[in-house]
Specification:
With 380 residues, the chain is of the alpha+beta class. The protein is built from 11 helices and 12 strands.
Length: 380
């Protein structure tokens, strides 16, 4: 009987502790796997970086940057898409730690006028349209906006009248909203006099990210990545002329690997700030991330391993806690997956949206079993 009890205790111990980090594949093995994935998905371009113990250990680019067949390289400027949101959240947390704002301030504390009073074409084009909001806007805080619990649709132009509305009370559930991030950007810039472009540029300079910005730079043009859509049709790069916290970043795989390494290592933040960003703060209650305003699942069907952090989604898996953030448009597929205890990440930037179909396979090949929620992320 004692031996049986002892075995049961050992099993309990094994189940309660994360598995040891696996040995990373060699560069040649990664190259071969990426080539296989690109053949299977027909992806024309893909860049990959591996971070281990808080440092980039492998950075490579594969395939083409444009329809002319010019090579995608590690310093080719690619569209960061919604990975911008994670960079923005990191920048906001640095401002929080500098005492410029609190995560739990009402945004009403920082605006000289009520949010719905800001209108006009310049405001709407720069940020979004809040003119139809009711008084619940006063409940919004930086935390809720970074958690994607604002109650907004993803973008105002998805609404019938192209104005934001509350679809649920702020803070009560997760629903991805780029315009929630645009709202926080407006509060920072109009209410607090902070410049998101300059703030993120300071982060990039500190990390040696010389070919990254949230606004188009002419020096990007000689080595820029165009993209391919799901049908294999090439599309030119969109030169974004406005800083948009929700998704205007241009970057390179070499640059963004430096950010991923710093972020997973907690550099630039206090231990408390780092822990706060990656704390499971709000349960995620939907079957998938998109569509954003889908009904919540019955409690018994909700995932217990998935929650919103700040600027990332946090998950629990066989190697412990991890976090991820994707970035997507018609011709872009990006993903950052990190394991917190190992300070290990896989960063994938695809200038062909078809590359996304290989991300789960590449993640398991490089990082091992993680339980990264790709089925929830992509709804597949």
């Amino acid at each position: 009987m004692k031996s049986v009890i002892g075995c049961l205790f050992c099993l309990l111990l094994l189940s309660s502790h994360p598995a040891a980090a696996r040995t990373l594949p060699t560069p040649a093995q990664i190259d071969a796997k990426v080539a296989e994935v690109m053949r299977r998905t027909s992806a024309q371009g893909l860049a990959v970086a591996v971070i281990d113990r808080g440092q980039p250990v492998y950075v490579q680019a594969y395939g083409k940057r444009n329809a002319q067949g010019e090579p995608l390289t590690t310093d080719t400027v690619m569209y960061g898409a919604s990975l911008t949101k994670t960079v923005f959240a990191y920048t906001v947390m640095r401002w929080v730690e500098a005492g410029k704002l609190s995560l739990d301030d009402s945004i009403a504390d920082h605006l000289p006028q009520p949010l719905p009073s800001y209108g006009g074409e310049d405001i709407v084009n720069r940020y979004t349209d809040w003119t139809a909001l009711d008084e619940r806007w006063r409940r919004l805080t930086p935390r809720l906006l970074l958690q994607h619990s604002s109650g907004f649709a993803n973008f105002n132009f998805l609404e019938p009248d192209e104005k934001l509305h509350f679809h649920f009370d702020p803070g009560t559930r997760y629903a991805y909203s780029g315009d929630g991030l645009a709202t926080l950007q407006f509060v920072l810039e109009r209410g607090l006099g902070l410049d998101v472009g300059q703030g993120t540029n300071a982060v990039f300079a500190e990390l040696g990210m010389t070919r990254t910005a949230l606004k188009w730079r002419d020096d990007f043009a000689p080595n820029i990545a165009d993209g391919w859509d799901e049908h294999g049709k090439p599309e030119p790069h969109d030169d974004r002329s406005k800083v948009r916290a929700a998704g205007s970043m241009d970057t390179t795989i070499a640059d963004l690997a430096k950010f991923a390494a710093a972020f997973v290592d907690g550099r630039g933040l206090t231990a408390a700030g780092y822990a706060e960003m990656l704390r499971p703060q709000l349960a995620i209650t939907t079957r998938s991330q998109f569509p954003t305003l889908q009904p919540e699942l019955p409690p018994a069907q909700r995932r217990k391993d998935l929650a919103a952090g700040l600027g990332v989604v946090v998950f629990q898996g066989p190697q412990g806690r991890g976090f991820l953030k994707g970035g997507h448009n018609d011709t872009t597929g990006n993903m950052l997956v990190c394991l917190q205890r190992q300070r290990r990440c896989l960063l994938m930037l695809g200038n062909d949206v078809r590359a996304e179909d290989g991300f789960a396979e590449l993640t398991e090949f490089v990082l091992g079993a993680t339980a990264a929620p790709y089925d929830w992320e992509y709804g597949k």
